[in-house]
Design brief:
This protein has 75 residues and is an alpha+beta fold. The chain is built from two helices and three strands; from the N terminus they run H-H-E-E-E. A hairpin with a 5-residue loop joins strand 2 and strand 3. The longest helix has 17 residues. Bound molecules: zinc ion.
Length: 75
């Protein structure tokens, strides 16, 4: 498995952890989440892509995100 595959797997894990609504007192789960999050932030070389999101017939907005770790970037 290459590095990008590892980062993609961790990005999926991060999304799963976010969907769990971790309890505030569950320190270990927060620790795991922070480890995964920090790993992605520091190890990913960010392959940023731009996408246009339609929200109506005449309107929409542009988003920029990394298609490896799925982090979004403003402007
Ligand atoms: Zn990235």
């Amino acid at each position: 498995m290459d590095r990008t595959s590892h980062l993609c797997a961790l990005a999926r894990i991060k999304l799963i952890l976010e969907s769990l609504e971790i309890q505030a007192e569950d320190a270990e789960m927060h620790q795991i989440y922070n480890l995964v999050s920090n790993y992605l932030d520091t190890k990913c070389d960010h392959h940023i892509v731009t996408d246009y999101i339609d929200i109506g017939p005449d309107s929409g907005y542009t988003i920029r995100f990394c298609d490896v770790c799925m982090r979004t970037f403003s402007s």
